[in-house]
Design a protein that fits this description.
By secondary structure, the protein is of the alpha+beta class. It has 12 helices and 10 strands. A hairpin with a 2-residue loop joins strand 2 and strand 3. Helix 8 crosses helix 12. The longest helix has 22 residues. The protein is elongated. The C terminus is likely disordered.
Length: 358
């Protein structure tokens, strides 16, 4: 076997748990590398070597020497610290932060990755990323308590993305990930057009327009809040969907990362024309009377919680229900009489009023 186990304090050779000369318990490993002695004080997890640990570490080093994979730098303390999960993950987060600041990555997803690291990945902090295997990840999953299967899968998906990055940048072998089957215990619900209209009529009058427009277009809540006056093409009865909210940040792309023109129904056209009157450019189409600024998705969700159908999520009552109605009755969305109790001042041009294709 190459190398010797010595006492860290007096330097004498060690064959016992405690040094017989000085009574010290910590050890070091001395190796001759390219004609020079190198001393190793820690195992790859960064833990100081006791005698049993030193013996096992020396055996691992000799196995690497025999397999021609030994690199002494992997066993020195700076390299050990660099390879720890905590340091590698923070390096990955730093790269994601740069991408998020430049608009190439979702800021909301970046915040989630930060939360996962801070709240859930602590058992992995001190592990060497090169040594993380399926058993480590399965133990990590087994120790998670009180989390849904969906949230657990999100944690694993984040780890999978992290290890893919390591694989691309450092040629690190991808570990096998544990399998988590997501069972949706609550099926999504949908309500009829008439039920949606009745629910929106329970809202304060000053907030009904954006809710009716939201319902008519089948947009996501972040997309309807992000619509600006310049996105409208009233002459042709359509609107360009090209931005959304990611958390509280306005981003110039949609969740699908594409721009799309969608036609406006009679009611949606009337609402858009009313709110765009004598307004131009990048002003938000819908202004929240409570704040004098554009609506935020969280505000609409709170409104729905207070005034909408109890037990039904906002996206189920609008986007999901809108999709269901489009599939079952593709031309029934546009009504001959607008359900909103106002008299609209502007009549739409004669163009096909097909619902959005989803």
């Amino acid at each position: 076997m190459f190398g010797s186990i010595l006492c860290q304090k007096c330097g004498s050779r060690r064959r016992e748990r405690v040094c017989p000369k000085c009574g010290y318990d910590a050890c070091l490993i001395r190796l001759s590398v390219e004609g020079k002695y190198v001393r190793i004080y820690h195992d790859k997890s960064g833990r100081t070597l006791a005698f049993t640990d030193a013996f096992q570490t020396l055996a691992n080093i000799n196995a690497e020497i025999k397999a021609n994979t030994f690199d002494v730098r992997d066993w020195l303390q700076p390299a050990i610290q660099e390879q720890k999960f905590s340091n590698k993950y923070l390096a990955w987060l730093k790269q994601k932060k740069i991408e998020a600041d430049k608009g190439r990555f979702s800021k909301q997803t970046y915040k989630l990755y930060e939360t996962y690291y801070r709240c859930h990945y602590k058992p992995l902090y001190d592990l060497d990323v090169r040594d993380i295997k399926l058993r480590h990840l399965q133990e990590f999953v087994n120790d998670l308590n009180g989390l849904s299967d969906k949230y657990t899968k999100n944690l694993l998906d984040c780890l999978k993305t992290f290890f893919r990055w390591l694989n691309r940048w450092e040629k690190l072998e991808m570990p096998i990930m544990p399998e988590v089957e997501v069972v949706i215990s609550e099926p999504q619900h949908a309500i009829t057009y008439e039920e949606q209209v009745e629910a929106i009529k329970n809202f304060p009058d000053k907030h009904q327009d954006i809710m009716f427009f939201y319902r008519e277009t089948g947009l996501r809540v972040g997309e309807v809040c992000a619509v600006q006056v310049r996105d409208l093409d009233l002459a042709n009865g359509k609107i360009l969907i090209q931005r959304t909210y990611s958390g509280y940040e306005l981003v110039e792309k949609t969740k699908g990362k594409n721009k799309k023109w969608i036609p406006l129904s009679e009611l949606a056209y009337s609402i858009a024309a009313k709110h765009a009157d004598k307004r131009f450019g990048n002003e938000f189409l819908f202004i929240n009377p409570n704040t004098g600024k554009g609506y935020k998705p969280s505000f609409l969700r709170q409104l729905w919680y207070r005034h909408g159908v109890k037990g039904l999520k906002l996206y189920e009552a609008t986007r999901h229900s809108c999709q269901r109605s489009f599939r079952s009755e593709p031309f029934s969305v546009v009504k001959s009489e607008p359900p909103c109790p106002r008299d609209w001042p502007i009549s739409p041009p004669s163009f096909p009023t097909f619902p959005r294709s989803l």
